[in-house]
Amino acid sequence: MRSKITSIVVQKNQWINNQNLALKFLNEEKKQKKVTQKDILDFALRGVVTLEREKLFRENVQNRDSGELHFMPIIENVEMNLESLSFDLKTYYLPKGFLDKINFDFQPQEFKLTDSEERINDFIENYIQKYQLRKYRKEGKIQENDHVVLLITDVKANLEQKFELIANSKDAKTLEAALLNKELDAEFDFEINQDTKKIKILGVFFYTNEKLTDANVIDLGIEKVQTIAQLREFMHQNLTEEVVVNSIFKYGVNVLLDLKKHNPKLLLPKDLIESDIKGFNFTKDFEGNKEQIVRESLEDFYWLNAVALKFNLFISSQELNEEVQRVQLSINPVMLNQIDTKKIADAILFQKVGAVYLAKYQPEEFEKIQKYLNFK
To answer: What is the pLDDT of residues 238-253, one digit of tens each?
Structure first.
């Protein structure tokens, strides 16, 4: 592994402006507590370093033609006072040709779907026999277990998002509990992650069990589904796609595990590990082995990106955006701030790795599932 140094010098006017912004932010955060000059300098430094590290890392990663694999830069040689700031960013990387030393040719574990055709068909039949028919509540107030469609507005970010929640009293502090006994068209404010959001109720409905037939299947509101036969086909396509995606992801993870077993262990520089430990979001009460966790994270990054470089795998903005949107629609709105786009991108990459090895070592299986994959 090699390293290279990128020297960063921040212009005086920019550095002073960064300090002013840091002072403004810290005054708002600390309120009654006194903000020291050290607080300002340290906060402003962290902001500049974060931006410059991510900028350099992004430039390195996007330069795929170099044939190099770069780790996140680490900071060195900081010189800082009220009027100036300079520091070095040290980037560890694998040079062009490093892929030639890796054994990518091995027989991975056998690919298996996580669910069977029989179970998919059973699910479809149970769905048809005991379908929960949606009925809209037209009068009264929101009741326990009602489904509520609402619009959540983040005024600061000027962002509106539509969600569906189930009103319930399990936890009095949640938005689900706050919805109970509200008028069907109510508008109110609610605090989510210490940030007040505007809530507008758009509709309220509940479910009753009823068998689906050709007469009522149209009430599902699914485009191109007018008969039970069309519903079976539609559900089979979507359920199989979900099973395939989960299976190919799991297979890709196993491929990476096998790749590690068939190659020498990666030797990581001590200062790279120490830098990542500082940047890792360990909780204050964490009692595990921090170095081991960071080392494994760096190794996973190396092997996943090595195989991506080897087979020219990349993730388009469209692929990432579509997957992020799918995740957003499937989780509670209070968890939106916890969405990690890097983990989502890695999940897509694992699927692509799995697809490459499946096409090579089990081409018949790959041919069966290829049409269900959502990427190129």
So the answer is: 888 889 988 999 999 9
